[in-house]
Amino acid sequence: MEKIKVMSIFGTRPEAIKMAPLIKELERCEEIESKVCVTAQHREMLDQVLEHFNITADFDLNVMKEKQSLSGVTNRILIGMEEIFNQYTPDLILVHGDTTTTFSSSLAAFYKQIQVGHVEAGLRSFDKHFPYPEEINRKLTGVLADMHFAPTANSKENLLREGVKEEDIFVTGNTVIDAMNFTVQDNYKFKCEELNLIDFNKKIIMVTAHRRENWGSGIRNICNAIKEIVGRNENVEVIYSVHLNPVVKDMVKEVLGETERVHLLPPLDASDAHNLMNKCFMVMTDSGGLQEEAPHLGKPVIVLRDVTERPEAVKAGTVKLVGTNYDKIIKETEDVLNNQQVYNKMKSAINPYGDGKASKRIVESILYKFNKCCEKPEEFKGEEF
Description:
Blueprint: E1 4-10, H1 13-28, E2 32-38, H2 44-52, E3 59-60, H3 70-87, E4 92-96, H4 100-111, E5 115-119, H5 134-144, E6 147-150, H6 153-161, E7 169-171, H7 175-183, H8 193-196, E8 203-208, H9 217-232, E9 236-241, H10 246-256, E10 262-265, H11 270-279, E11 282-285, H12 289-296, E12 301-303, H13 311-316, E13 319-321, H14 326-338, H15 340-347, H16 358-369
Parallel strand pairs: 1-2, 1-4, 2-3, 4-5, 5-6, 6-7, 8-9, 8-11, 9-10, 11-12, 12-13
Helix pairs in contact: 1-2, 1-7, 1-16, 3-4, 4-5, 9-10, 9-14, 14-15
């Protein structure tokens, strides 16, 4: 029996974490020939995840360059994927979310008339500049995609309003919840030794902040606010996992490098990051993924962005959309730190993003699309807000 040839393509650490459980599910399916292609839009951080999940790339573009521009990355991926598709022609590519890898690979596949499956489809902020360039990457990929794997009912509605046919949308939940089922452990020992020395009886704030639209004054405001919060709250410690991009890393080190009770760490692997999240008191982030991951673990989130393409958690009350205003960051963070009623309300474990079975639903949807089974899989039914 001829197998369905499926190529999973990704290039950044967050994509790799979310695609890893799906790749494992594809490998288990006897009716699918699974291949993995990495663009290495990020290199070192991507390799951490591949090693952790024991994934070997069949194709590796290795496009990362120092101080790379968006147009340069787009061009290198587009040309590189064309060369790969000349060597190996899949029946379907799977891309994830909103990266330049996602859009460029989808366009390259379209030029070769290869079908595109978009994992984590349908998220929208409705502002093309926030997040930048991710919002446009998502929308353009949505135009090119043949299969849309929407994590929530809200994401499905966004796609329907844009004219996507309902039969091409599959509500699956988010694969990041699947990944956390692999990584979070009760008696976890961190690989990063500094984390094993942290007193988690204190109020530990996990921080990530690196998005392009926050470069410059946004990151500076975030760092100055963190410095003030720690100075005013003696029982608080901050663990900031700092992105390797010098634009971010240099400014964080300049503002927070000598600050007591602030730990500046390199990017953590998936297990360390998820288990730190599980042990911390709360999260401050401009990441998209952490807005999904932290509610799964019952952790309040301060979102350091003005808009979000993940409104479900805002409506559920597990995240606060704060932006990068110095005074507002301090006010809203201290409200969570010091008001038990606010904290308890936010930590209520309402999780609209998944049940750990998203990867299985995606594989079943592929089998359905390629006539290997007769019935469309049941949709994920999360909390509706």
